[in-house]
Amino acid sequence: MRCRKCDQKAVINMRHHKLALCKEHYLEWFVAQTERFIKKYRMFGREDRVLVAVSGGKDSLALWDVLWRLGYQADGLYIDLGIDGGFGYSRESKALTQAFAEERGLTLHIVNVLGEYGATIPEMAQLTHRGKGKPCSVCGLVKRHEMNRIARDLGYTVLATGHNLDDEAAVLFGNTLTWAAGYLRRQGPVLPASPGLARKVKPLFRFYERETAAYALLRGIRYIYEECPFSVGAKSIYYKQLLNKLEADRPGAKLQFYLGFLKAKEEGLFAAGKETVPRMHTCPVCGQPTTAPGKCAFCRLVERVEERKELRIKNEE
Amino acid sequence: MPAKLILRNKTYEVPHGITIKQALKQLEIPLEEVIPTKDGELVTEDTHLKDGDVIRLVAVISGG
Q1: Which pLDDT does position B64 carry in this prediction?
Q2: φ, ψ dihedrals at A241, nearest 5°
């Protein structure tokens, strides 16, 4: 297979775009497309301070690399979750993220969950009996809170994540199966800023997962290849596999599914019904917005963790 | 000598002469979920497998 642009040997074939490219033209195409999507969906401009949430995985590091090449003011945020999984998952992903930032002279903020809140993510889940043996819901809650906190405290106007099209299509698929209207209404590549919260954007949302991986590999980005040990059997992976079966027979099906959803939303398919926008309150502890009066879910979690730790110490005495 | 495809430390043997796409189909590995590489370089799925070729498949699905 030959590169559409220069006739050299192609390294990737994107059947949904009917486009095969060589290494040089693929890297060029990927960066140019990202810039196009940032502008098309009005994600941010050169004046914005962007905080990129980096996990050490292929998507977030590819995103940070592209934003850096495009000359945006993009700093990184790594949240050390304290997950080991028998192979030092968090330790390894942090080391890769630090090496990435150092090689490019980029600013990286690191939040250590254990240091800040006295317990790792798996410990928090265990202490509070949340998540039926899996810490994923605790992990999501902590990550969202910490990303918002750092963005607000350090004055970032935009929070960028490395979600790709497969991530978005899998979430959409799950929300459609249950007709989760509230989630469907909110899903999109840009979540506008609201009081106390930075704008959230997903600049890679139109790239297939295969394409972000190809970018990282071709660019020589060293990323964590092993999956989070708690992702085994995750619903999102199952949905991705189902959608990939569809894609194999109908190239472009995933892209069409997601872009069709965005278009339908724009045309009013999910017009507000009975559900009204909840009145937001301010958490008296952390100051972040919350849907109910009193402490937010994160502060209640931290409080429970502290209580259970104290109780455990007393019982041991 | 057959060609080898390696995915996450698991090695599969396939006859040479067929394409990577055909080999993946035989092994029921979805093309959407892997990137084939040969000698550290990315290769497209229409590449014909030669005698003794070793193709490393990089898994791309992540989630949780």
Answers
A1: 56
A2: -65, -40
